[in-house]
Specification:
The structure holds 2 protein chains of 2 kinds. Helix content of chain A is 66%, strand content 0%. Chain A is mainly α. Chain A has one domain. In chain A, helix 3 crosses helix 4 (61-81). A two-stranded antiparallel sheet of chain B has the order 1-2. In chain B, helix 5 packs antiparallel against helix 6. Chain B is 74% helix and 2% strand. At the A-B interface, helix 1, helix 2, helix 4 and helix 7 of A face helix 1, helix 4, helix 5, helix 6 and helix 8 of B.
Chain lengths: 236, 495
């Protein structure tokens, strides 16, 4: 009974606040303050054909750096939680082994997944997609390998170095902007090039390639931590 | 002319070191532990360079991508933000020096990266001038904190870490919804731009986005009904992490609420509600702390109480109240961080967190106990220490808050201060006058642990001897915070 009353009170508060918010909401008016500016000035200011990329990497590049960092922190947190001092615990027997088709098929598909992922992030400033999407696709290739070959592991050292170097690339290319004339972090100091060409949009493709490598290696690291909780052996 | 005092370096430099740590960790895990002190030291130097600029110009604005705000993200540092950034860098430096000796568990490389990220996220939160960027910084801070709380991987820390993860994620989602609503209503994310556009909104229209943002940040800031995670999470973490979490992280969340309330929403109509929440937080925190047997849990509850204290002072809405709030923030950050570090050093000797096991260690661990007393005195506000001036300012501000229940408020504040004194004196009585347990071998903690908190103790003692300049500065900061037009013009002035 008390619970029902509490629910009713809370629900009515929420409904009342929602009504208050929407009663005087300026429906039908153009509220695109910043968005309009991006649509009008994107090509002139960044040279990127994909406006979404221009927004995520140029106008709001600091947010993207933050999101990359969030992913980095999450990956580090996962590897802390799955860290086991007793290495023997990891060598638990696996019940089901993948069959022939999965093993051979994954070998054929894996290079194509890598290629597709890299295509997505290299062309991030031209077509839909970008570093996060491409990186996730690459990591899905690693997941496939883990499922097909339970005994094997990726080389974590190489993953960690890739991850770190990609992050350093982002920060260093951002910081160069501070020392150019604009005194501004993430300033696009490279020539903008011709619209719709692969080599255009200044530093944006470089940043997206760095993000692609970083996201790919981080997700691969998370997959490794989680899969090796039960499945694989070998050295870390 | 290269501008080395660009405030964005406060974010870029630690992130550089974090990713550098990721590169060198595969080759030498031990080497990564020297990176956080270096990064925090550089940050501290940059913040010190920024002081004269902020004092001269009021608000320093740094753009990103070479585009003027509100179209690109900007960093805006005013007095309050800069002071919190200084505190964050200082505490980060001290705690990471403490880590050199304190952290022996694996994986150390991940711990050092997350520790540095925690400090970076806090600094980021207090200097950003953009609502969505605030959310991102909030995520960086809280996600690194989740990992650090669960670092020891025993039953307590996993449980606490999971509880914190669930509540923190809910908080982040609520904050995000609030920011999205603001964007939907105003079409911009820049704090100053929102502040200008939201002026035409009525009290009722502001209520929904504000309450989402308030609740989301309130979970991280440990306000009363939302703080169930804190008494578990702060004690379960390693002591150096607890000192950052208690010392500056909850404060950073409260800072974000203050920034949203004053600068962005200009929401004076909500202050009676804030006052009520703050008062409940104060009463809940201090009374719960009184009944604790575990020393770190007691300190964590005391953090809730102190948060309520300075949030209460802020909610008075006057210049004097905000001045008191800032002074209390400063005092609480320094003292609480030091108390947690000392508690950690004592726990390494006593091998227990129970207060009863601490009896008599004042005779063996002389330096630690004396500095524990200094921190406790400063926190509870005994006359020579800075805490006295901050509490006095808050009491005066409360007396100036003319309402029919003013006296009740003052009585509650004083009574809670007495309770705070009571539980700290109980610990100290057991420490200095209690009997040492038979057959225990206790000696002073190693110099690697003692030196960092002694540095912090010297800062507190300096504040106790020369409080006047800081009191004057805090008044300036409070005035600057109230005159929000200065902030808005500084950010949008270039248009």
């Amino acid at each position: 009974m008390i619970r029902k009353i509490t629910y009713t009170i809370f629900l009515s508060i929420i409904v009342a606040t929602l009504i208050l918010f929407f009663v005087a909401f300026p429906f039908g008016k153009n509220k695109m303050g910043v968005g309009k500016y991006y649509l009008n000035n994107d090509i002139k200011q960044t040279g990127a054909a994909n406006v979404v990329t221009a927004v995520t990497l140029d106008y709001r590049g600091l947010d993207t750096l933050g999101e990359v960092t969030v992913l980095f922190a999450a990956a580090a947190g996962v590897s802390i939680l799955f860290y086991l001092i007793d290495q023997d615990k990891k060598k638990r027997e696996r019940q089901v082994y993948p069959n022939f088709i999965v093993r051979v098929g994954s070998r054929i598909i894996f290079p194509f997944i890598l290629l597709f992922g890299s295509y997505i992030f290299i062309h991030g400033h031209l077509t839909p997609g970008g570093g996060f999407q491409g990186g996730s696709i690459i990591a899905s290739g690693f997941l496939l390998l883990y499922l097909a070959y339970p005994g094997e592991r990726v080389n974590r050292k190489k993953l960690a170095v890739t991850e770190g170097l990609a992050g350093l690339t982002f920060v260093v290319f951002g910081a160069i902007g501070i020392f150019t004339g604009a005194h501004s972090f993430l300033f696009n100091f490279f020539p903008k090039g011709t619209l719709n060409m692969l080599f255009s949009a200044g530093i944006l493709p470089i940043l997206y390639i760095a993000i692609g490598f970083k996201v790919g290696s981080e997700f691969a690291g998370i997959i490794d931590d989680m899969m090796c909780q039960t499945v694989c052996g070998g050295e870390k | 002319m290269v501008n080395l005092t660009n405030p964005i370096l406060l974010i870029a430099v630690p992130l550089f070191f974090v990713f550098l740590a990721a590169v060198i960790a595969p080759f030498s895990k031990r080497a990564t532990k020297y990176l956080p002190p270096v990064a925090f030291l550089i940050n501290l130097i940059i913040t010190l360079y920024l002081i004269p600029q902020v004092a001269e110009k009021g608000v320093i604005v740094a753009t990103t991508a070479g585009i003027k705000p509100p179209f690109a993200i900007n960093i805006a540092v005013d007095g309050l933000g800069l002071s919190l950034a200084i505190i964050a860098s200082l505490l980060g430096l001290i705690a990471s020096l403490y880590n050199l000796k304190y952290i022996t568990e694996e994986p150390q490389d991940k711990f050092n990266m997350l520790f540095l990220l925690l400090g970076t996220g806090i600094t980021w939160m207090v200097i950003t001038g953009d609502m969505f960027n605030l959310f991102v910084a909030f995520e960086v801070t809280s996600i690194s904190a989740f990992g650090l709380v669960g670092f020891l991987r025993d039953k307590d820390s996993i449980e606490a870490g999971f509880k914190y993860l669930v509540m923190g994620s809910i908080g982040a989602s609520l904050l995000l919804i609030g920011v999205v609503m603001l964007y939907a209503a105003t079409g911009t994310l820049n704090m100053a731009d929102i502040a200008e556009k939201i002026a035409r909104f009525s009290f009722r229209q502001k209520l929904l986005p504000y309450s989402f943002i308030f609740t989301g940040l309130g979970i991280e800031g440990a306000l009363f009904p939302l703080n169930a995670w804190l008494p578990d999470a702060h004690p379960a973490a390693p002591s150096s992490v607890s000192s950052i979490l208690s010392g500056i992280m909850t404060t950073a969340a409260i800072y974000a609420i203050i920034r949203a309330t004053v600068t962005v929403f200009n929401y004076s109509a909500i202050t009676p509600f804030i006052l009520l929440i703050a008062l409940l937080t104060l009463v809940f925190g201090e009374t719960s702390a009184f009944f604790q047997k575990d020393i770190k849990r007691m300190l964590a509850y005391s953090t809730i109480g102190q948060t309520g204290f300075f949030f209460f002072a802020f909610s008075l809405g006057s210049v004097q109240g905000m001045q008191g709030a800032f002074m209390q923030i400063l005092n609480h950050s320094l003292s609480k961080a030091m108390l947690f570090l000392i508690a950690g050093a004592m726990i390494t000797q006593v091998h227990s967190r129970n207060i009863d096991d601490f009896s008599g260690i004042g005779k063996k661990m002389k330096i630690s106990s004396v500095f524990f007393a200094i921190g406790a005195f400063s926190l509870m506000g005994l006359p020579p220490f800075f805490g006295f001036w901050s509490k006095l300012t808050i009491i005066f501000a409360t007396l100036a808050y003319t309402n029919f229940y003013t006296i009740t408020l003052v009585v509650i504040l004083l009574f809670m201060s007495v309770i705070e004194g009571a539980y700290f004196f109980r610990v100290m009585q057991s420490m200095f006058f209690g009997k040492l347990k038979e057959g225990t071998e206790i000696k002073e903690a190693s110099p690697g642990l003692v030196v960092p908190f002694v540095i912090l103790g010297i800062v507190i003692l300096t504040l106790a001897i020369y409080p006047t300049p800081i009191i004057a500065v805090s008044k300036k900061i409070a005035v600057q915070l109230i005159h929000r037009a200065v902030y808005i013009n500084a950010v949008l002035g270039g248009l």
